[in-house]
Amino acid sequence: xxxxxxxxxxxxxxxxxxxxxxxxxxxxxxxxxxxxxxxxxxxxxxxxxxxxxxxxxxxxxxxxxxxxxxxxxxxxxxxxxxxxxxxxxxxxxxxxxxxxxxxxxxxxxxxxxxxxxxxxxxxxxxxxxxxxxxxxxxxxxxxxxxxxxxxxxxxxxxxxxxxxxxxxxxxxxxxxxxxxxxxxxxxxxxxxxxxxxxxxxxxxxxxxxxxxxxxxxxxxxxxxxxxxxxxxxxxxxxxxxxxxxxxxxxxxxxxxxxxxxxxxxxxxxxxxxxxxxxxxxxxxxxxxxxxxxxxxxxxxxxxxxxxxxxxxxxxxxxxxxxxxxxxxxxxxxxxxxxxxxxxxxxxxxxxxxxxxxxxxxxxxxxxxxxxxxxxxxxxxxxxxxxxxxxxxxxxxxxxxxxxxxxxxxxxxxxxxxxxxxxxxxxx
Length: 427
What we know:
There is one protein chain. By secondary structure, this protein is α/β, with parallel strands linked by helices. It folds into 2 domains: 249 residues, Glycogen Phosphorylase B (Rossmann fold, 3-Layer(aba) Sandwich); 154 residues, Glycogen Phosphorylase B (Rossmann fold, 3-Layer(aba) Sandwich). Helices cover 44% and strands 14% of the residues. The chain contains 16 helices and 13 strands. Helix 6 links the parallel strand 4 and strand 5.
């Protein structure tokens, strides 16, 4: 079987769980005998393409006047998008960005329909323009490649998946890693919502990364339940051996790692840290990541007068992520709404006990993690204190957590996805 797969990120150039999950699924599919053509907006040349056929959309010219695309254009209506969006930011910041970067439909059309187009491959001000161009390239690739089924990851690639389906008639699977409701806390951007909804309506099957996400897809987007199936994520089993790094201080280290945005609950983490530090001076806290709430979080730490015990690392790449896990004694994911959450699995794999919010998809499959409501900073603080000061408790979560993680493999996740492919192809 051969899959035409669309993804916005591919390691090592990733910004979060989307790229990690897409790559894990791809490797799992290949291990199970499935070929994958993976299309990214921009390839940098240092990607691991030993197991996949990596296509760089920036290198593929497109001219809708070409004879071979005429039939395609007769069958598909192209939706022009005249405004821009920056994902993962607060609604206020989004509005400011739009006001500063308004583009007319004419400017948008002339640029996106040019024969050659260089993608940034990032989440900048021209994101919607890149999403639209990516869909055009998808139609071109789909008409030239030999494949059995189409798989598109998250809303950024849904238009591409739909374009590939309409130009070839092949079955389409869309993967919902995070909904607009998760990213914005309910203050949805209508453009993104419409793209998500259209992509799922046009798809033959929707894969949700958790039952939490599946319920949102059904209830908020009106997608028929029989069309939405849950396939939980997994974790790469490879890791740097414990003890590779030596901690330069004696205190316990409690870590938050993720985008510093409303969705991830960084403000609750800081309030819990303050409560812990009022009881114990033997703990340090680290917030790793970047996002629109970073400045606000730095100011809050200063207001609470805990800056001497609190560290902001900025965005960490893979090796630095491994290093901070090696130094950590507790990992906390206090997400307000987390479709899944791969980072806790990575922490547990690295022998770090974890505290996760009950409002996360990963809570559905983990038994050996402390689960709290994201808003309950007292419970969060008590859990942090307990794991930092009661060695037996910490050792128990580490021991059984690692055993649990050993059973969460991408090749098993991919087998479930292959079954979905086969069922669609046999219809």
